[in-house]
Amino acid sequence: MDRSCVSSRRAFLAALAVAPLSFLVQPDKAWAADGQPITKPIPSTGEPLPVVGMGTWISFNVGGDPVARDARTDVLRAFFAAGGGMIDSSPMYGTAEAVVGSCLARLDRPEGLFSATKVWTSSTAEGLEQIATSERLWGLQRLDLLQVHNLLNWQGHLQTLSAMKADGTVRTIGVTTSHGRRHAELAQILETQPIDFVQLTYNIADRDVEARLLPLAAERGIAVIANRPFQGGSLIDRVKRHPLPGWAREIDCTDWSQVLLKFIVSHPAVTCAIPATSRVDHMEQNMAAARGDMPDAALRRRMAADVAAL
Amino acid sequence: MDLLSYSLVDLIPFSRETYFRLFERYNIGVWPAPIIGLAMGLTALFTARRADGWVLRAPFLLTAACWIWVGWVFQIHWYAPLSWPGIYFGMGFVLQGVLMAVVLGWGPILGSPEATDRNHGPGLWILLFALALQPLLGLLSGRPWYGLEVFGSAPDPTALATLGLLLMIRHPLRWLLSIIPLAWCLISGATLWVLSVPTWPVMPLAVVLYLGVIVWPWVSGRSQLE
Ligand SMILES: NC(=O)c1ccc[n+]([C@@H]2O[C@H](COP(=O)([O-])OP(=O)(O)OC[C@H]3O[C@@H](n4cnc5c(N)ncnc54)[C@H](OP(=O)(O)O)[C@@H]3O)[C@@H](O)[C@H]2O)c1
Asked: Less packed terminus of chain A by CB within 10 Å, N or C?
């Protein structure tokens, strides 16, 4: 099997040496023994990021419900206990940012957090207010990643975000899309804009981005976040009706969620996948995908064919 | 906002569990408003059934007050934090309350007995269903009694009861007063469908029934002429 991912410490050193190509650094077996999750470097900074992060769409939009907030705190606790890093949210997700912020505070702001949220408004001026609100809700003075949500007014917001990055008020910037929407425009942005991250939909059943966008991101040194890894839940519900294929054991998968996630994060251009869950057991299953062997190119082809045939 | 690029699923950013918990928290948070709402509904039922002329304004004024409450308190303060369209829903509900109060509460037409040629049949049944049976549908989805949606404080039975009441009167502006309740029935049906709530067809079926009752005399009259 090909370990297409690298350890945090070694990734960082490798990234310093060959920063633009660091995401293609060859696998390193040494790290696995220390129990830490597999990481990949963010191409533009070299900083290692665990290959499985988490999303918050629906799962963390629970409002002021104290019972649900307790349950989400447990989910975040499990995430960080497994070495989780990126949490992705958006002002579009109702109360998700507020809930994440309150859970983080209850967990005494765990180490390793990579905070990623979005700006989602058609007005450039309002974007600044929205970002300030997000910082307040997360309880952070500086966010790690700000993305233009669904390319909404990306021209205006990217100017704001670039200026913020230049003066150090945000660490990295990017754009997002999903469901395969507006890929031609996204390609144009990847070609012309100095962004650190692109977020798009990529999973074993939605693979359009393999043709152009993933190679383009790799070529431009842009980190890729894969959203909707389980197609919002429908993909995993569908495959779970079938027994786990024999090859799943070869890549240390005990559950379909790990098969689906390992398929995504073993693509050389993908930096991390961000499955969303409201359950601790699912979080533990998902985070286990950031451990053990990863599929090589041949097995990835077989995985896709087998899942398509289910 | 680039609304056309969003699908229905994008506009429902919460789970079924969160939606059901919203009503549990809301009913407890605004207590005893659900009981007061239900009492207002029963008063509306009895006055609408028995009265005409001046007294018939009472059920509509009571229901108008409920629309304003549901819009301001439920939609804007409880629902909108979970889902941004709630602000617009809230404004729509308040507008419906004001329209009902102005058109049916103070308008001279309703006051004249000739104008209240009421057909109690389907309207009364819809009203009864909204007041008594619709809240119990929640039990089928395993919801606790304190999380049930009742007339006057929750949007669905309030909208459905309003359609029932509107079928019990004849008024030139009835079509205007039907737009928001009908639209809400479709929005709520779509929301429940996305959340896979088994009773989702109830609200869209109410739209079909309401329009059917209105259109039927016209269609059957025409076919008789032909
Ligand atoms: N345009 C954008 O920027 C954009 C668009 C879409 C998504 N996103 C981001 O991407 C994230 C992920 O996408 P998504 O939330 O739409 O969908 P997803 O992660 O593909 O699927 C989430 C669903 O999968 C279920 N699930 C998670 N882990 C599971 C497991 N181990 N076993 C069985 N079921 C499991 C969850 O249910 P349970 O809660 O029961 O576990 C939930 O219903 C979002 O949360 C958001 O942060 C961004």
From this structure: C
